[in-house]
Design a protein that fits this description.
Blueprint: H1 3-17, E1 20-21, H2 22-29, H3 33-45, E2 49-52, E3 55-58, H4 68-71, H5 76-86, E4 94-98, H6 102-110, E5 117-121, H7 124-130, E6 136-140, E7 144-145, E8 152-153, H8 155-161, E9 166-171, E10 175-177, E11 181-184, H9 187-198, E12 200-206, E13 218-221, E14 228-231, H10 237-246, E15 249-252
Parallel strand pairs: 4-5, 4-9, 5-6, 9-12, 12-14, 14-15
Antiparallel strand pairs: 1-3, 2-3, 7-8, 10-11, 11-13
Helix pairs in contact: 1-3, 2-3, 5-6
């Protein structure tokens, strides 16, 4: 197992259980405790874990929200497969919303060059990535830019959404469950996400399997408001069945 694969599995376990232990991890992965400590240090530097005595805990348990750059460096293969699967939900032409996020950013990279689309975003980096594409008309929502997620929020982003109607909204979430719905740490960002869903005829959630083990401060949608959930094969089959029973189609890419 490569170091990156081991670190992703350590992160998955930390988010599922709430804590990981150095000695236990070393035994299970058949490596030295020094190797595990280096893995935990790397995950801490990326903003995903916080070291504690004898192990580490996910930053979510401390109320932290990882920065976009840190989130973009994990689950890369899974996010790319999710983005590829999401292409099946694109309209032949028309308008879409792409929410700010690391997985939705992979969708931006994968958008086809032979389809005329109007794309509404609340992320300056995503708008810049699409701005020179001749087949895309890009509309950037204004407002305050959150440094942690590089998403625009507040009234200048909210007001235009009230007058827009799009075919599909491709949404991101920090947490998702049938019981608690879709959640995110920041109430201002939750308000934008809620307005995006309200402006769309259909809504597609792009979320890797780790998002289904967490719940955050601000809820912005119920699972029943989502038409399609696209995750990866790491999504537990029982969780997938529970989601599907609540309403949305579930795709494990």
């Amino acid at each position: 197992m490569y170091a990156e694969e081991r670190q992703q599995e350590i992160l998955r376990r930390a988010r599922t259980v709430g804590r990981v232990d150095v000695v236990t991890l070393a035994e299970e992965f058949a490596v030295t405790t020094e190797t595990i400590r280096r893995d935990l240090t790397a995950l801490e530097r990326s903003g995903m874990l916080r070291r504690v005595h004898g192990g580490a805990i996910p930053v979510e348990r401390l109320g932290f929200e990882p920065e976009l750059a840190a989130r973009d460096e994990v689950m890369i293969g899974e996010k790319e497969r999710i983005a590829k699967a999401a292409l099946a939900e694109l309209p032949e032409d028309g308008a879409i919303i792409i929410d700010a996020g690391s997985t939705t950013g992979r969708l931006v990279q994968a958008l086809p060059v032979d389809r005329e689309l109007t794309v509404i975003v609340n992320s300056p980096p995503l708008a810049t990535a699409m701005a020179t594409r001749p087949n895309l008309t890009v509309i950037m929502l204004g407002g305050r830019v959150r440094g942690r997620t590089l998403a625009t929020v507040d009234d200048w982003a909210l007001r235009p959404l009230a007058d827009l109607h799009v075919d599909v909204a491709f949404m991101a979430a920090n947490g998702c469950s049938v019981a608690k719905g879709l959640t995110t740490p920041d109430p201002a960002e939750a308000a934008i996400k809620r307005a995006m869903i309200g402006a769309a005829q259909r809504c597609v959630l792009l979320a890797d399997h780790t998002k289904f083990a967490n719940t955050y401060l601000a809820r912005f949608a119920s699972i029943q408001e989502i038409d399609v959930v696209i995750s990866d094969t790491g999504l537990d089959t029982g969780v997938a069945a529970e989601l599907a029973a609540a309403g949305p189609e579930v795709v494990r890419a």
